[in-house]
Amino acid sequence: MDTPILEFSGVNYIYHTISCETSALQSISFKLNKSEFISFVGPSGCGKTTLLNIIAGLIPASSGSILSFGKPLNESTLSIGYMLQKDHLLEWRTIYKNLTLGLEIQKKLDREHIKIVDELLKTYGLWDFRNAYPRQLSGGMRQRAALIRTLALSPDVLLLDEPFSALDYQTRLNVADDIGSIIKDKGISTILVTHDLSEAISMADRVIVLSKRPGTVKADIKIHLSIENRTPKTSRNAPEFNTYYDQIWEAVHDENEESAV
Fold it and tell me: Which of 105, 154, 185, 261 has the most CB atoms lying inside 10 A of its own CB?
């Protein structure tokens, strides 16, 4: 079997303040394989976003081991893309200028990377809006633009922190379907944090359930849906979907848990 693109072993994270220490994550262990999509669900405050921030290198783990292809993550050349809840598009820059901002910062504004941006714009319906400003786009279009901006840097791992939560239900379904298809087509290893159990199941190969704080792994459930040409939208029609939903719901809403998602 191939070496995992990411491997967490006994990872802990503790918040320190003047008055106390708070354990946010405890003994987190899991593997992310190449081209795999994992969803994390759990109660509010269980450390899901903290987990993403550790992977992104924004904060260091307090203890434990994090490897990328068998090497310490902080010594690897792993490229990580991070898509947040808000699109954070700059209102004074055109869509095209927003999408190439990361390339400008990393001094990668060359023909090869520009070609990637152009192809993504054309493929996912934003080419005609490349000279528009963010305020002229719908919420769904803005999220597609935010994803293209992230993909323009050709990340090895994509982190998604509730990227659809600000959208209305119908738009959320459509954008999740579009973005899920983009990720699948490009074979990008992805970790999604979400409070929406249906979204977690429909998009992922595996769903990992975290406990209330300090977050620990309560369940790691592989998703196998007997449906052809699976997309996030069609996954919801699979005969096994409700069974997975009930299983994950029970894991999240354990009688000993105080929070609900």
Answer: 261
